[in-house]
Task: inverse folding
């Protein structure tokens, strides 16, 4: 008698649980923030909005948001940006026509601000006063 009641209770619990199990088998038809996992295939970057790696160049890009000020129709964001492709190999040719590598500093590499019109790599020659 005890075994029969245990089997009956197990059958009832299994039937009730089957409804919950069926609800978990829904296959998503679109990618949303609720069901996205990992990096999307065929994407050009791997990572998040703060740090990501450019797949084509292998550059690590970091954006550290400092502040955001809402304005009329637009929002001003100030952030520090880092691009790890500071040096790149530029092939040059000597007088005999033989190629040799030369390391060159890439534009917009290293630390900089995202503010338009402001450069982070000023030298004394860039800041002359013209009268």
Result:
């Amino acid at each position: 008698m005890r075994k029969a009641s245990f089997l009956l209770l197990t059958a009832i619990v299994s039937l009730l649980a089957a409804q919950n199990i069926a609800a978990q088998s829904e296959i998503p038809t679109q990618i949303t923030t609720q069901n996205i996992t990992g990096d999307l295939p065929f994407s050009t970057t791997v990572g998040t909005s703060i740090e990501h790696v450019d797949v084509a160049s292998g550059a690590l890009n970091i954006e550290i948001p400092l502040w955001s000020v809402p304005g009329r129709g637009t929002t001003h964001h100030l952030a520090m940006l880092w691009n790890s492709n500071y040096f790149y190999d530029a092939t040059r040719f000597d007088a005999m026509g033989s190629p040799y590598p030369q390391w060159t500093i890439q534009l917009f590499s290293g630390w900089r601000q995202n503010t338009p019109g402001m450069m982070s790599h000023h030298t004394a020659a860039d800041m002359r006063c013209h009268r």
In short: The chain has one domain: 2-116. Residues 117-131 have pLDDT under 50 and may be disordered. DSSP finds one helix and seven strands in the chain.
